[in-house]
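User: I'm curious whether this sequence folds into something compact or stays loose and floppy. Could you predict its structure so I can see for myself?
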Amino acid sequence: MSGGAVFTIYFIIFMGLLLMGGILSRRWVKESADFILAGREVSTWINIMGVCAIGYAGTAIALGPGFAIMGGFRQSFLFSFVYCIGGLVLFGVLYSNFIRRCGSQTLPEYLEMRYGSNVRKIISFTSILGMCGILANNIVACVSAIVGFTGWNQVAVMAVVFAVIIAFTFISGLWAATINDFVQVVIGAIVVPTMFFLLMNHFGGFDAIAANWAGRDWVNAGLANYEMPMMALTYPSLLNFIICFCAALVWGNNYYWMKIASCRNEKIARNSFVAAGIILLVVFFIPLALIGSFAGAFFGSAFVQGGGRMPHVAAFGFMAGPLAGVFMPLVGSFFIIGAIAASISTASTAALGASAVATRDIYMRIINPKAEGKQALRASKIAMLLIGLITFFLCMLPGGPTYIFAFANSWLVPPAILLALGILWPRFNKTGALVGGITGMIAMAILTILSLTRIFNVDQYIFLASLGFIVTLVVAVIASFVGEAPYYGKEGWERKPTNSNREDIKLEELDLKALELLSVGHRYMADITDTLGIDSSRSGAVIERLDRGGYLVREGLSRSAFFTFEITEKGLAALPEKAEENLRKAKLSKLYVELLAILKNNPERQLEFITKHSIKSMHMAAISSHLTREGYIEEKGLFKRRLQITEKGLQAVAQFA
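Assistant: Here's the prediction. I'll summarize afterward.
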């Protein structure tokens, strides 16, 4: 059987598995929150696979081996380390508590809560463009791998791949992407290490690479003896790797935010990002770098750096050819499927991330704020189709994956800066965020157009994303001193309320509902937002009124402590109906005791409990998270959440039921 026929069979089976994952998970999607965040039900292992699937991307397949040919193994390793450890691991360690506790489903939603609606509107539109660019980048990389191996028509292949990605994410959103991440990561975990070990077995070990390397040092220099500088402003350099693959690609990217926001709790989010970063580095990225080293050592003359015509970013696909000749087409075709899986795993997440912003931050915030339930779910699916149309246009941009990737990152640097400043600096205000964000994005957009039209190429002086980082940061900091600081950032504001340092606030209905939650032990903004079923901008306004009035006290004024609260005596006194003293001290309500009793006596009746009280998915997530934190239940289940009562929960049932 020919290589083309074998690959066709593989390709049909793989695409069928993707569609099947979407169809099987469709029954889990009943509202927009299920489509976007999977109802905050994602477990540790599922999120590890999801983050690994994003990292194992078409960009990694291209740059991992390519950088080894261009600048030696060191350059590829530094790229890998910066993304996996500096990007993913640090993002998980530094941001998990904050993102999961603040309650915002998307990054632009948080930016409105912190800076106002104008910032959210601007960042929403530009984030969609950035994520569409990443989606387009991975589709183009995927199509290039297929066409290079089979010789099929590029437009036809692009149409098929595009249709499958949009189809299975359209069917059930994050649940479809989550299930298919399993398939794609498993394939990648087999393909990449296997390809490396086959190459080592066929050509020899590291000594063989050193002996056949055309450059002077395969570790520190490329085929043309190029050594990557560390702190240069031009790309590539270690400095630009940090700005591009930490700040832009991870910290300012909505779909990494969603990967944390969708987790059952902040511990799961943190541990899954740390584990995924380490797994990606060891299982995927280091072997990819060594595959590039083998390609450069034994086929160096085929690449541009060695005097040939093959671009260095095509090294992975190129090496599948020799292996197919040695080990049959069966193996080579499987390796190309591995490259396709890498592209599609990230493409589907980018599509969902862009759709989430379009739905949550544009449709439900600007076009139809009253949308909920099935209406919001329908809007999510329509947004997915529109995202597809925008991305198909971006796929046609000249310059291939490199220019598309630069285009994407130009829109993701400003959100990363606004996020970091908002978390760490209470004085930073909406003026700084708005002026800094707009200035940085306009500068990068203009320079991107000038570069694509070949009028002026700024990259010969400074990498575009690095310039955007500097411009946004400097302008944002300077502009923040012009506008008024948030109330908690003003000089003289005291975190702890007294009889003399708060305002006379007339409480509204939502304020009282939030106080009721605080009175039974809910401490995080996420619980309040999810239970009330409102946008973070509204729950943020509720908390501000309660803070200004002295009805609650924040744990701190920065980082996750800013979204951690405790009710004051004034807050308790304001409640029209107080929970029983013993229940309140146990951090329980009658509703929660009823659920615990069901878990003890009739666990199969959980759905009946949810239906009886009209509890939506995010409200259930808040209940489950609270009872888990207090030790009354444990959250089990690999995919869907399964609640199990603990000994403490049994004691509560005996005492209060």
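Summary: Confidence is low (pLDDT under 50) at residues 31-37. Residues 495 and 554 are 7 Å apart (CA to CA).
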